[in-house]
Structure formats: C-alpha cells, structure tokens
Amino acid sequence: MRLRVEFTTEPFDLDQPPAHALVAREVIEAADLDAVDVGPFGNTAEGGADAVLTAVDDLLRRTLRSGATRISLQLNVIGEGVVGERVAGEGGK
Predict the structure, then answer these.
(1) Torsion over CA: 80, 49, 76, 39 (sign)
(2) Per-residue pLDDT for 84 more than 60?
(3) Which of 22, 23, 31, 71, by CA, is between 20 and 30 Å from 11?
(4) How far is CA 87 from each of CA 34, 47, 77, 80, rounded to the nearest angstrom?
C-alpha cells in the first residue's frame, strides 16, 4: 500500500523556522520515502505504508518534544495493496 501524508506543525514563526519545524524537516528527509516536498506552511511525503507510518510516528514524537503545540496531518491511501506487502513496481518501499 502506498500512502501520502500532508502535515504542518505549529506554532508558526515567520521570522525563522522554530525548532519543531526543523525537526519535522529532518525526520521526513531522513525517512525512507519516495517523494518529499517541504514548504513553509505545509509538507508532503509519499512512500510505502510501513515507511510512511514509521516516519509519522517519529515525526509526532520528536516535534512534540521540540515544542510543537499542534500538529495537523492528513493521511491518504494512494496505491493498491495490503499493508505490509510489496506493491508491484514499488521496489520494496
């Protein structure tokens, strides 16, 4: 199964990125994901179910410890298959 996660962390600081935003970027960029788009007001990542769910768990725990007071996220299934199984053409991710 392929998933897409979209998320934001708050509070916002327009002058410089807060610690929780930097941690969120670090978590997502280090994860084993296929597509990552990090922006100032929203972030998107795609990949296999296990990789996305692992990254989301790490993201929630670490950004809360880094000062996030609100994390908004949306998770969408974007590909077929069964959780934990490889999808044809997914390359094991």
Answers:
(1) negative
(2) no
(3) 31
(4) 14, 11, 13, 7
State how far the alpha carbon of 34 is from the alpha carbons of 15, 28, 42, 49, 89, in Å.
30, 11, 17, 11, 12
Tokens at 93, concatenated:
């991710």
∠ CA 73-30-70, rounded to 5°: 25
Contacts of 25 (CB under 8 A, 6+ apart): 17, 38, 43
42: Cα within 13 Å, side-chain hemisphere: 7
Q: Is there a contact between 45 and 13 (Cβ–Cβ < 8 Å)?
A: no
Q: Model-level pTM? A: 0.81
Q: How many CB atoms lie within 10 A of CB 44?
A: 16
